[in-house]
Design brief:
- The complex is a heterodimer of chains A (about 110) and B (about 110).
- Chain A is mainly β and about 110 residues long.
- Chain A has one domain (about 5-110): Immunoglobulin-like, CATH 2.60.40.10.
- Chain A is about 0% helix and about 55% strand.
- In chain A, the strands form 2 sheets. In chain A, strands 2, 4, 5, 9, 10 and 11 form a 6-stranded mixed β-sheet that branches. Chain A has a 5-stranded antiparallel β-sheet with strand order 1-3-8-7-6, with no helix packed on it.
- Chain B starts with a strand and ends with a strand.
- The relative contact order of chain B is 0.33.
- Chain B has about 110 residues and is mainly β.
- The chains are: A mainly beta (about 110), B mainly beta (about 110).
- At the A-B interface, β4, β5 and β10 of A face β5, β9 and β10 of B.
């Protein structure tokens, strides 16, 4: 049973525009959420995270929004750049440690120059 | 340079053969993990270890084995019991909930 879902397998955006990647979760115990970025044949790299006590976290061009009532989070990239083209994984955890970390299936973002 | 080193980058397994994937870290993290990624799927946890000489099964441990004799090393053996071993394997270590990944090993069956 997939506890973290990314329903859009792919997304294409023009360079300079906003990219919005979405993620839904089912387990109300999740209290920490992360986004990872992955290039082909490489390991994922941590991008940004948010605790359940917040509804927004910003880091440069990247902002994550959390809507706990809807069990939904989103990653906004503004402005999008060609180097942002990658697969983005949403992940959610509860408690301490990463052994309770659950990943979504990923969204492939393509930024068109 | 601190990080996670996985080797080899590509590995081929023959029918009935056991193969071992290497993972070394110099980040001084206590916890280490093995994940499997299949096309169009998220990362699934195979095994994890929170301390030397201790490890726990993840969601898909069948057909795999691990050891944790040193803090720096967490090798994964894909045994002949794993009937569908073709996948991209990722090793990671963690600081709290944040995972730091290696560059992965692509395992294919000959």
């Amino acid at each position: 049973d997939q506890q973290v879902k990314q329903n859009s397998p792919s997304l294409s955006v023009q360079e300079g525009r906003i990219s919005i990647l979405n993620c839904d979760y089912t387990n109300s115990m999740f209290d920490y959420f992360l986004w990872y970025k992955k290039y082909p044949a490489e390991g994922p790299t941590f991008l940004i995270s948010i605790s359940s006590i917040k509804d927004k976290n910003e880091d440069g061009r990247f902002t994550v929004f959390l809507n706990k009532s809807a069990k939904h989070l989103s990653l906004h990239i503004v402005p999008s750049q060609p180097g942002d083209s990658a697969v983005y994984f949403c992940a959610a955890s509860w408690g301490t440690g990463a052994n309770n970390l659950f990943f979504g299936t990923g969204t492939r973002l393509t930024v068109i120059p | 340079d601190g990080g996670i080193t996985q080797s080899p980058k590509y590995l081929f397994r023959k029918e009935g053969q056991n193969v071992t994937l290497s993972c070394e870290q110099n980040l001084n993290h206590d916890a280490m993990y093995w994940y499997r990624q299949d096309p169009g799927q998220g990362l699934r946890l195979i095994y994890y270890s929170q301390i030397v000489n201790d490890f726990q099964k993840g969601d898909i441990a069948e057909g795999y084995s691990v050891s944790r004799e040193k803090k720096e090393s967490f090798p994964l053996t894909v045994t002949s019991a794993q009937k569908n071993p073709t996948a991209f394997y990722l090793c990671a270590s963690s600081l709290n909930e944040k995972l730091f990944f290696g560059s992965g090993t692509q395992l294919s069956v000959l």
